[in-house]
Design goal:
The protein contains 10 helices and no strands. The protein is mainly alpha-helical. The protein has one domain (24-193).
């Protein structure tokens, strides 16, 4: 793991080298299907409350810096269940729970995530994790009724990452989308319907 320097509170720049997703890894990340056995679940959630509190303190940039290695090491992304994967039972991984708690804790700092999209290569793990968090952010904004923030997310004109394009390639509502703003608008529509 590369050394991580602390972020400035006023201005941030990503200090980790961009971790480009290997083309062979795209298939796995687009078909990911959560925790497979109970022992893995138990081991992931040992001391979870304390770990969450430790990882989600400080500024949004500091927490990103602390949380990103967890997402990278455990899954390679934040979401642990790809869109097209169906399971009889679903148990979220610690990485996904951390992502949801990150979104709840820093929903007012959503522009940080938008800024990350403009800093990262579209085929990097950082970009994919940011997109996963923005997808979760759309759901959070609907729950807490922050429509003006949703509109800003819908205007993001950055490309969707290859993993998400593949993940949603068989869904007629998503297959022609190319921009993150369009994708997030469709996520919002699906969230309202479901």
């Amino acid at each position: 793991m590369l050394p991580v320097k602390p972020f400035s509170q006023v201005q941030f720049s990503i200090v980790m080298a961009h971790l480009i997703i290997d083309p062979d890894e795209i298939q796995r990340l687009a078909r990911i299907s959560s925790i497979k056995n109970p022992q893995e679940y138990r081991s992931q959630f040992n001391n979870a409350t304390e770990r969450l509190a430790t990882q989600l303190r400080g500024s949004v940039a500091e927490s990103w810096n602390v949380c990103f290695p967890t997402w990278l090491d455990s899954l390679g992304r934040v979401k642990d269940l790809a869109c097209g994967v169906r399971k009889m039972t679903y148990v979220p991984s610690y990485a996904t729970v951390l992502g949801r708690e990150f979104v709840r804790a820093y929903s007012n700092d959503y522009r940080f995530l938008i800024d990350l999209l403009f800093e990262m290569p579209v085929n990097s793990h950082e970009y994919l994790c940011t997109c996963d968090l923005l997808e979760m952010m759309v759901e959070e904004f609907h729950i807490i009724n922050k429509n003006s923030k949703l509109e800003e997310l819908y205007r993001i004109d950055r490309l969707m990452p290859p993993v998400i394009i593949l993940e949603f390639s068989c869904d007629l509502n998503y297959e022609r989308l190319t921009l993150m703003g369009e994708f997030l608008r469709q996520v919002a529509l699906d969230f309202i319907i479901n």
